[in-house]
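Revision sheet: structure tokens.
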Amino acid sequence: MLYTKEYLSGNDIDLRKYNLGIIKQLKVDDFMKDYDLIDFVKPFYMEQSLDLKDEIHDSGLHWSYYLMMSSDENKLLDLLLNSLKFLYKTDDLKPVSFHKDIKLIIKKDTKPIAFIDDSNFDILCKVMLEMCYFEKPEPEKEVKGDTELVKIAKEMERKYNQKNKDKSVMVFEEMVRQVMHYRKLTYNDIKNWTIWFLKDVYTVECLSESSDKQYLMFTNSNMKVDLKNVKRWQDETKLIRE
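Predicted:
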């Protein structure tokens, strides 16, 4: 993880050295209105899916490739702009050309607070996935080596949508509900928790419950349980800095 102390404390994430400004971590209450967490994360997840391709990863032209795809599939850019507006709490986002390169200038109260280009788009996407407790996508063998970027992007979006609409996937509000019951809290108690902390609590509670059940089964002579296979939440959720 890139910013373990910030994720755990809920403090702002200072990305000024990447020209990305200071990021305020998103809270539970932010996604209990019209905007959905799945929609917010989607463009960052898709960029990280594309980063698995050798030519994109090695070139470092993450922003350029995203723009190339967006020129044929405008929805891709709209997805990103919506997420950036939500993240930076501003509607003032403007593409500007610099010597054939295009930067996205982000302003608040008419003052530039960040910009996005090839030098920092990848790091922003990585931080957004971590901040929202999403795992980086796994490599897809069937698209490796395919240079049709729009085709790849559409396939990645299809898989992302399918994965997050599956009945086995925990919807965000259900996760909020379960954490409230696990910890015997009201919504007002947790509405200002960060997304990272909410998901970490949920993960720890689930792992604790699972390991407790397996230890109880181990004490039953009729059950065969190998303690080496019991997952401890302390190990499974250990904070490891990159």
